[in-house]
Amino acid sequence: MTVPAIRLATLCLGMLPAMLAAAAQDQGATVQVSNLSTTTTCAEEDNVSFALSAPGIQAFRVAAVHPPYIGSIRKDSSAPDFSGCNFGDTPHPTDPRHAFTPRKVRLYDGKDLAIVGITFDSFWRPQRVPVRVGAREDNGGFHLIQFFDKRVVARPGGGGANGTRVVETEVLVLYPSDGYWRAKPLPAPHLPDNAYGSSFLMGPVVQDLRPIVEISRIDIDPLAKSVRVGFERGGEARIALAEVSRLRTTLDVSFDPPLPPSPAKAAKAVKAEKGTEAAGADPRTAVPANTFAMLRSMYVTEDNADMSRVQWRDAAGQPGDLPLPQVSTLQATEARFGRTLPSRHNTSAPDIAFERFSGQ
User: Fold this and answer.
1) Phi then psi dihedrals of residue 266, to 5 deg
2) What pLDDT score does 110 carry?
3) Kind of pairing between the strands at 215-221 and 226-231
4) Is residue 103 within 8 Å of 118, Cβ to Cβ?
5) Is residue 307 over pLDDT 50?
6) Whole-number Å distance between alpha carbons of 149 and 340
7) Where is 332: in which H helix or E strand?
8) Who's near 139: CB < 8 A, 6+ residues apart?
9) What distance in Å separates the CA atoms of residue 91 and residue 249, rounded to the nearest whole number?
């Protein structure tokens, strides 16, 4: 028995709202992306801040991917550039300095992953975050935790058991005392290494001289390649190292419980006018309510920046692409912070993409 055409049309029209709702759900939750950047002439200053905010965010993905021009790089540039700075060769000279006993500890050495903890002789925050790796616990206070991808590769001209070697490549770092992360994919085949560029925060972002996430503890399961991060403000995040390849390094992030809405009084309104200066505010006071992640970077000019463009997709699935100075506030289901023009600073540094947002 067939359904009459008019009845079929009525049935399809009746299903349309549900189909549209399902499509929107597949697109992912929509978050606000706020440009809080300020201007600078110094390539060693993190003047770029993009806050990602939405109430009740439960999970999302962060991916570090090569810039689209990676194949054209013949000479990488990752040396510091203090030419436009007024503080010599000492970064952040006004930061507090807390003394520590320097050390470097190999916390885990597995078949395909190695983890190293480093304590500097001084750091701008005094916090000592407890770190557990498997059954091993350390309360001495690491300022940097490095994650190395380990692979067996052939030696040039080698053969047999002696024709291979183990190569360790750093792909992810975490700064426990202020909550900053950096990630990068494995180097492109024609490059010996690649640089870090933008960094990011994941969790309840607050201000303490600069945007930070206050971490109370770190538990690393090296076999599962996952990190549980406890927050001083309650709750925790689970960060899974889902992929490490020459294409991307991917982190799947979930909050337990979902981050609660932050009070409106904790936020400062972000102007909607175009332009970096008009759209931004002092990053020490301008974190919007319900900020669960933040992109931090550097921009002087389009050819001297660790990120210079924002590409995004809105709730209707439509793409957008703007240079950083033209971005104010966006509503997005995914956002990529990167470059289309090679930069003379950290040329090979990856783009950072946030996607697959989901909430309660």
Assistant:
1) -80, -10
2) 97
3) antiparallel
4) yes
5) yes
6) 27
7) strand 329-332
8) 128, 130, 131
9) 28
d(CA 327, CA 34): 8
Q: How do residues 84-106 score in pLDDT, each as one tens digit? A: 777 555 555 567 899 999 999 99
- Dig out the tokens for 222 from the structure: 């090296």
What does DSSP assign to residue 261? P
Give the global pTM.
0.84
Taking the mean position of all CA atoms in its chain, how far away is CA 106?
24
Helices (H), the chain: 5-27, 276-279
Of 128, 265, 287, nearest to 296 by C-alpha is 287
- The DSSP code sequence of 85-152 is -SSTT-SSTTS--EE---EEEEEEE-SSEEEEEEE-SEESS-----EEETTEEE-S--SEEEEEEEEE
Q: Which of left, alpha, beta for 209 (phi over 0: left; psi -120 to 50: alpha)?
A: left
Which residues are CB-contacts of 21 (< 8 A; sequence separation ≥ 6)?
none
